[in-house]
């Protein structure tokens, strides 16, 4: 462990326009006027584009997104600048500074990329006018806008983490720069056996999810909303396991290396993002099953491609926002210990290494856990209550059996996924025991991702038929 003695800096002070002290009131009036005009102009643009159907075109869609982004961009910076000009507080905490930097960079990069997308839109409109409506359809526009936003905030996160892992200090405090995973040290004599078991499960999980994504992509019979969500879930589960399991396997065979604070924060960020993304994808799949069974005549109208893409984008967006909030709150803490009593950078084991009281962080974790576990789980079960009530009205037993069969695979995955997540993050803190927590963590990081391909491949007739078609066999 590398250490350096320093006094931890907990806040900064903006110098602002201190060189123009005698003109600060004038600057305040000028900047306030410009700020109000900017806000009013952007709000008017967004409102007009939304209410006037003549402006419901890709060009104005991107313009409304840009105006919204510009509004948020100015909100991040100018109000604090104005308060500094009239002598109000110029100090900002480390977490406040990190948050401001993150959103400033996120919106700035998003704006740059949006302008590039708008240039592409104009290129298609002028150089390929006959294909314009096909190329720049609503699905393409939504994907472009979502990708631009995600790219901006991902790059912003990388920058913010890189800067705020630097020491802001004076002297006389131990600064922790890296962590070491204790992993399965309590099972030292069984580590080789655990390595073989986890490696086998990991290979099966990867192979299964890759097969599902590939089959759904190449087989046109599976180009439906349900299988689109399934392919997104499989892709997310694949990346989710890649974030955690390879390093865990290295630790089991003695190849463990310390992980830097930035590396730990990055692993935690992707773990939280993908875990929450999976929760909301399962909710979207539950809604899809509800529409299919309770509104079959309107299914293709309700679950069109645009809605499906928006649901997936929303799931991913929620994951990114919550992960950013959680990682920022954890890694603004000062750390005095280096041994993480876990096999990856989970929230609670990392917080236990802090030198200060983490009650606020614990409360935030519980609130976030309730919102991202119980809320989507409640929505799924409400969907199934409505589904069951509709299915029971079907007169034929064969019809009821077929309806339940379409939901069985999804319901199995939901129960396992939400059950493990609830036990891991909603149980009382007093019940936390290291071995117990690791056993639960193995369940939702190794076992649960395996359920997705196993359940959907072995229990789903359409997927099995698609596999047979891909293998060139005749269906019986």
From TrEMBL:
<protein>
    <submittedName>
        <fullName>Olfactory receptor 10J1-like</fullName>
    </submittedName>
</protein>
<keyword id="KW-1003">Cell membrane</keyword>
<dbReference type="InterPro" id="IPR000276">
    <property type="entry name" value="GPCR_Rhodpsn"/>
</dbReference>
<dbReference type="InterPro" id="IPR000725">
    <property type="entry name" value="Olfact_rcpt"/>
</dbReference>
<dbReference type="GO" id="GO:0005886">
    <property type="term" value="C:plasma membrane"/>
</dbReference>
<keyword id="KW-0472">Membrane</keyword>
<dbReference type="GO" id="GO:0004930">
    <property type="term" value="F:G protein-coupled receptor activity"/>
</dbReference>
<dbReference type="GO" id="GO:0004984">
    <property type="term" value="F:olfactory receptor activity"/>
</dbReference>
<keyword id="KW-0552">Olfaction</keyword>
<feature type="transmembrane region" description="Helical">
    <location>
        <begin position="366"/>
        <end position="392"/>
    </location>
</feature>
<keyword id="KW-0716">Sensory transduction</keyword>
<keyword id="KW-0675">Receptor</keyword>
<feature type="domain" description="G-protein coupled receptors family 1 profile">
    <location>
        <begin position="208"/>
        <end position="456"/>
    </location>
</feature>
<keyword id="KW-0812">Transmembrane</keyword>
<keyword id="KW-0297">G-protein coupled receptor</keyword>
<feature type="transmembrane region" description="Helical">
    <location>
        <begin position="60"/>
        <end position="81"/>
    </location>
</feature>
<keyword id="KW-0807">Transducer</keyword>
<feature type="transmembrane region" description="Helical">
    <location>
        <begin position="141"/>
        <end position="164"/>
    </location>
</feature>
<comment type="function">
    <text>Putative odorant or sperm cell receptor.</text>
</comment>
<feature type="transmembrane region" description="Helical">
    <location>
        <begin position="438"/>
        <end position="458"/>
    </location>
</feature>
<feature type="transmembrane region" description="Helical">
    <location>
        <begin position="404"/>
        <end position="426"/>
    </location>
</feature>
<feature type="transmembrane region" description="Helical">
    <location>
        <begin position="265"/>
        <end position="287"/>
    </location>
</feature>
<keyword id="KW-1133">Transmembrane helix</keyword>
<feature type="transmembrane region" description="Helical">
    <location>
        <begin position="307"/>
        <end position="325"/>
    </location>
</feature>
<feature type="transmembrane region" description="Helical">
    <location>
        <begin position="101"/>
        <end position="120"/>
    </location>
</feature>
<dbReference type="Pfam" id="PF13853">
    <property type="entry name" value="7tm_4"/>
</dbReference>
<feature type="transmembrane region" description="Helical">
    <location>
        <begin position="192"/>
        <end position="218"/>
    </location>
</feature>
<feature type="transmembrane region" description="Helical">
    <location>
        <begin position="25"/>
        <end position="48"/>
    </location>
</feature>
<feature type="transmembrane region" description="Helical">
    <location>
        <begin position="225"/>
        <end position="245"/>
    </location>
</feature>
<feature type="domain" description="G-protein coupled receptors family 1 profile">
    <location>
        <begin position="41"/>
        <end position="157"/>
    </location>
</feature>
<dbReference type="InterPro" id="IPR017452">
    <property type="entry name" value="GPCR_Rhodpsn_7TM"/>
</dbReference>
């Amino acid at each position: 462990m590398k250490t350096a003695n320093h006094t931890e800096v907990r806040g900064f002070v903006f110098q602002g326009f201190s060189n123009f002290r005698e003109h600060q009131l004038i600057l305040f009036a000028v900047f306030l006027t410009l700020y109000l005009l900017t806000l009013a102009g952007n709000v008017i643009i967004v409102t007009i584009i939304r209410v006037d159907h003549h402006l419901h075109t890709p060009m104005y869609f991107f313009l409304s997104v840009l105006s919204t982004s510009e509004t948020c961009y100015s909100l991040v910076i100018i109000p604090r600048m104005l308060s500094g000009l009239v002598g109000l507080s110029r100090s900002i905490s480390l977490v406040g500074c990190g948050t401001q930097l993150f959103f400033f960079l996120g919106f700035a990069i998003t704006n740059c990329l949006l302008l590039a997308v708008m240039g592409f839109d104009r290129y298609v409109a002028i150089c390929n006018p006959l294909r314009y409506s096909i190329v720049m359809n609503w699905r393409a526009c939504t994907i472009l806008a979502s990708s631009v936003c995600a790219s901006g905030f991902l790059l912003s996160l990388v920058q913010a983490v890189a800067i705020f892992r630097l020491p802001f200090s004076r002297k006389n405090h131990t600064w922790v720069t890296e962590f070491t995973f204790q992993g399965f040290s309590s099972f030292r004599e069984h580590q080789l056996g655990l390595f073989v078991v986890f490696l086998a499960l990991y290979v099966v999980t990867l192979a299964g999810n890759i097969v599902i994504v590939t089959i759904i992509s190449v087989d046109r019979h599976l180009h439906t909303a349900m299988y689109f969500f399934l392919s997104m879930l499989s892709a997310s589960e694949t990346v989710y396991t890649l974030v955690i399991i390879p390093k865990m396997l290295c630790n089991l065979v003695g190849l463990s290396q310390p992980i830097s604070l930035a590396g730990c924060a990055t692993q935690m960020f992707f773990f939280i993002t993908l875990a929450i993304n999976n929760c909301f994808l399962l909710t979207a799949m539950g809604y899809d099953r509800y529409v299919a069974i309770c509104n079959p005549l309107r299914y293709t109208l309700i679950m069109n491609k645009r809605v499906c893409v928006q649901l997936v984008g929303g799931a991913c967006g929620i994951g990114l926002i919550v992960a950013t909030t959680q990682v920022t709150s954890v890694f603004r803490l000062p750390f005095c210990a280096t041994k993480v009593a876990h096999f990856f950078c989970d929230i609670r084991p990392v917080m236990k290494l802090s030198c200060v009281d983490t009650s606020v962080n614990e409360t935030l974790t519980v609130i976030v856990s309730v919102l991202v576990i119980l809320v989507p789980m409640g929505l799924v079960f409400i969907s199934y209550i409505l589904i069951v009530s509709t299915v029971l009205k079907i007169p034929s037993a064969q019809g009821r059996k077929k309806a339940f069969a379409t939901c069985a695979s999804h319901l199995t995955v939901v129960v396992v996924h939400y059950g493990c997540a609830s036990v891991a993050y909603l149980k009382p803190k007093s019940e936390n025991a290291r071995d117990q927590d690791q056993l639960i963590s193995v369940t939702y990081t190794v076992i649960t991702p395996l359920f997705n391909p196993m359940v959907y491949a072995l229990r789903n007739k359409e997927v099995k038929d698609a596999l047979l078609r891909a293998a060139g066999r005749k269906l019986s």
